[in-house]
Amino acid sequence: SDAVRCYRRAGRFQTAVDSLVQMGRVRTALRLLKAEHKYEKAIAVLDQHSSLQVPQELSTEAFLKLAASVRAVSAKPGSEDVNTKRFLALVSRMQSDDQKVFLRRYGFRDVLVSKLLEQGLLTDAARVLVEDGKALEGARMLEQRQDVSAGELGLCCELFLGLAFTQRSEDQVKYLEMALDTHKRLEAMLKKSSECAGTRTPRDDEQRRLNALQQLQIELEIALRFQDAERAARLNEVVASAISLECKMAEVLARVELLYLDFCADLVQP
Predict the structure, then answer these.
(1) Residue 31: which residues within 8 A CB-CB, separation 6 or more?
(2) Rounded to an integer, what is the distance from CA 20 to the centroid of its chain?
């Protein structure tokens, strides 16, 4: 309208927007706000007209993304400044998947982890920590929870194993033993679950056997990181477990290592 054009020429942009809204031309006001990059003001208008049907490009979700992207330029993880607070406030109004994208994209991983934990999404929280180079923190978080699922314990074990094979040699046994303890906890959980259900299916038996074989593999890895008498003692335990589980591969590997120990002992004898 002429009045709106006059307001704009006079530099009274907000008055022009208010006039459009008062005339019921809310969509036009939103387009004007978008063109002028006044995204947060557009959100405020939409909040006052929540029942208004608008195209996707003029929706609250669209303006939240635009506004958050602008605030993110100056937002800093851990800061208490206005831009950071506004960025987080805008993100908190987004859909869950969009929140994850924005918090990851702009480095607010700690905030994302906290949100995922609040929602009980332990596996997702642990994976974010891993992506951020904090695999041990992710594993510890899962390990210390009392309400973990079998899948979450499985991930915990995988993380400890990953650490065992990528860290310094003096830390490998420590992480392998953590993985073994986690597997034993998983075994107890599977057993209790089967008992509570009152039935044992072939799938339950297969899962428990698979878990036992994985434990056996870890025990063998631990044994191979010791020397002489301690190694022999641990290898003999692996042989006994392998025979119990009818796992020929593990039994053969352990026996070969024992033979090698005997051979080395014979070489050093006078």
Answers:
(1) 58
(2) 46
Is it the case that residue 197 has pLDDT exceeding 80? no
CA 257 to chain centre: 39
Mean pLDDT within 101-122:
92
> What's the rounded Cα separation, in Å, for the pair 268 and 118?
60
* pLDDT score of 110 more than 60: yes
Residue 204 banded pLDDT, cuts 50, 70, 90: confident
Residue 7 pLDDT greater than 90, yes or no: no
Taking the alpha carbons at both ends of the chain, their separation in whole angstroms is: 108
Q: Which residues contact 104 (CB under 8 A, 6 or more apart)?
A: 112, 128, 131
- Sign for the pseudo-dihedral over CA of 142, 143, 146, 147: positive
CB of 138 within 8 A of CB of 158? no
Residue 182: partners with Cβ closer than 8 Å, 6 or more residues away = 143, 153, 156, 157, 160
What does the alpha-carbon distance between residue 218 and residue 157 come to, in Å, rounded to a whole number? 10
What does the pLDDT read at residue 247? 87
**pTM metric for this prediction:** 0.72
DSSP 54-75: --GGGSHHHHHHHHHHHHHTT-
Flag whether pLDDT at 12 surpasses 90. no
- Let me know if 82 is exposed, middle or buried by CB neighbors in 10 A (0-12, 13-18, 19+): exposed
